[in-house]
Amino acid sequence: MRIISGKRRGYKLTPPMGDGTRPTTDRVKESLFNIIQTRMPCKNVLDLFAGSGALGIEALSRGAEHAVFVESDRRICELIDKNLTGASLSGGAEIKRMQAREYLDICDIKFDIIFLDPPYNKGFLKPAIDKILERDLLAGGGIIVIESETKGSELGDLLNCFDGKLSVLKTAKYGRSSITVLQR
After folding, report:
1. At 127, phi and psi to the nearest 5?
2. Per-residue pLDDT tens digits for 111-154
3. For 5-54, how does the pLDDT look when each residue is reduced to its tens digit (9 = 90+)?
4. If you write DSSP's letter for every residue of the chain in order, what string do you get?
């Protein structure tokens, strides 16, 4: 696991130990950032269900001014902090140790990019997207980048639920993972 590009290109991130977190592979991360490269640099990024924090860290390396990492696991938050400090990217970062739903209820920042990579097929996507739209947390022209499981994805059912508030810009499949980019 490494930073693919930007000012900290090549920096090796410490991956989480155990089965509780499924880090985005370098291949998927590189493809994802190739898809959204015209959006970088940007002002505010949200890495919701941050896990390893690799997506938000990559965004900071590529010039994002500010990134918020939301993760409920204390050990993973400590790991994100360690990786941010080691990569000299902690100045523009905030780590929030809480449930994604709780953060979305209190957040007052408009984000240019929101990364959603929740545990696969656990029903977290729709409530998160609904709350983002309800609270108007996506900046004008902002995007939501979703990583989901290719097979049995809960995302397929969601794409018809946005009532014209979001449109699909791009979808791509990488083995077990799919990337979907939604725009306001």
Report:
1. -60, -35
2. 999 999 888 778 888 899 999 999 999 999 999 999 887 776 56
3. 999 999 999 988 765 566 677 788 888 898 899 998 999 999 999 988 99
4. -B--SSTTTTPBPPPPPSSS--PPPHHHHHHHHHHTGGG-S-SEEEEET-TT-HHHHHHHHTT-SEEEEEES-HHHHHHHHHHHHHTT-GGGEEEEES-HHHHHHH----EEEEEE-PSTTSS-HHHHHHHHHHTT-EEEEEEEEEEEESTT-THHHHTT-STTS-EEEEEEEETTEEEEEEE-
Phi/psi of residue 4, nearest 5 degrees:
-80, -40
Look up the pTM and report it. 0.91
